[in-house]
Specification:
globular, alpha/beta, NADH:flavin oxidoreductase, single chain, TIM Barrel, Aldolase_TIM, OxRdtase_FMN_N, 8-stranded parallel barrel
């Protein structure tokens, strides 16, 4: 492996200064009983901060809306008990020398009735659809939209109040914000439907509300993807020009950093260029970008059939990643499963001790490590 010095130099992203370019990717683990992050969650994030991660992005944590949660034992981001738990996480990460942002989340149509909180509430989505053409829940009214926008804004304000260093909005992977982007799930006939510019209205309202809630100096990260859980071939934008038209309003609304989710960081996004999605995002918007996708592992994080099977993987060379970092293709790299298997992954890579890294196994995601 080439020297990884580029990954371990301090980086100033305007409103966010970090000790290195390593971020922890958000990974849902369903380890918060009663939707409250407990001491095990505190320890989990502390260990990654002690292990050298510059910025931790938490697992998805759902906002205060009756249909926001889609899985049992996922942490909430509202209520005195859950926020007190998150405050302990923040304090532990800071004490270990790291910085941290919560990923604020609403699952949308992916929710199934019976998950608490929410009980029998059906999934909410732009048109009541999860997979294109399949009605699975409740088509959102204007009141629903307004309530969700307000919930994201309140969660962001609470994150700032309890000491987080930034927030991330989850606009990827076929969850609610992304369901508004994608024409396969957004067939509305009002101002929130139509072409991609109109389908972006919901996200823009959330970003503007969050910006108003946290002020000008608090960093907002926005995670987006071309692919969806339901369709790996789905693409919001087929050309750089279309991508620029999509991203520019998001940046103007208040996004400081784009988290560009791909399955494989090394794959070019458009023909005629080696740039990946993060590289194009950085070039087109002038905003810092986070790359992600099977970093440090020899297998994709999901199989081709789209099932949520976080299969195992062996450690792999970082040479291609370092080459791209040296070209300033991205500003941060988010590491996922490798950090589940190796809490001190960043320190080991920085010290050139990659021979000691262990393989990731599926069972690790739901173990206390």
């Amino acid at each position: 492996m080439e020297r990884a010095d580029t990954l371990f130099t301090p980086v100033d992203l305007g409103k966010l200064s970090l000790k290195n370019r390593i971020a922890m990717a958000p990974m849902t683990r369903t380890f918060s009983p009663g939707n409250v992050p407990d001491e095990a969650v505190v320890s989990y994030y502390r260990r990654r901060a002690e292990g050298g991660v510059g910025l931790i992005i938490t697992e998805g944590t759902f906002v205060n809306h009756v249909a926001a949660s889609g899985y049992p034992n996922v942490p909430a981001f509202y209520g005195a008990e859950a926020l007190a738990g998150w405050k302990k996480v923040v304090e532990a990460v800071h004490a270990a020398g790291g910085k941290i942002a919560p990923q604020l989340w609403h699952v949308g149509a992916i929710r199934r009735p019976g998950v608490n909180p929410g009980g029998d509430t059906p999934g909410h989505s732009p048109s009541g659809m999860a997979i294109p053409g399949k009605v699975t829940g409740h088509a959102m009214t204007q009141e629903d939209i307004d309530n969700v926008v307000a919930a994201f804004a309140q969660a962001a304000a609470d994150a700032k109040d309890i000491g987080f260093d930034a927030i991330e909005l989850h606009g990827a992977h076929g969850y609610l914000i992304d369901q508004f982007f994608w024409d396969g799930t957004n067939q509305r006939q009002d101002g929130y439907g139509g072409d991609l510019a109109q389908r972006s209205r919901f996200a823009l309202e959330i970003i503007r509300a969050v910006r108003a809630a946290v002020g000008e100096d608090f960093p907002i990260i926005f995670r987006y993807s071309q692919w969806k859980q339901q369709d790996y071939s789905a693409r919001l934008c087929d050309t750089p020009e279309a991508l620029q038209a999509f991203l520019t309003p998001l940046a103007e609304a208040g996004v400081d950093i784009f988290h560009c989710s791909t399955r494989r960081f090394w794959e070019p996004e458009f023909e005629g260029s080696d740039l990946n999605l993060a590289g194009w995002t950085r070039k087109l918007t002038g905003k810092p970008a986070i790359t992600v996708g099977s970093v440090g592992l020899n297998a994709d994080f999901l199989p081709e059939d789209g099932t949520a099977d976080f299969k195992g993987a062996e450690p792999a060379s970082l040479d291609r990643l370092i080459e791209r970092a040296d070209r300033n293709e991205f500003d941060l790299v988010a590491v996922g499963r490798a950090l589940i298997a190796n809490p001190d992954w960043a320190n080991q890579v920085a010290a050139g001790q990659t021979g000691g890294l262990v393989a990731y196994e599926k069972k690790m995601l739901h173990q206390l490590r």
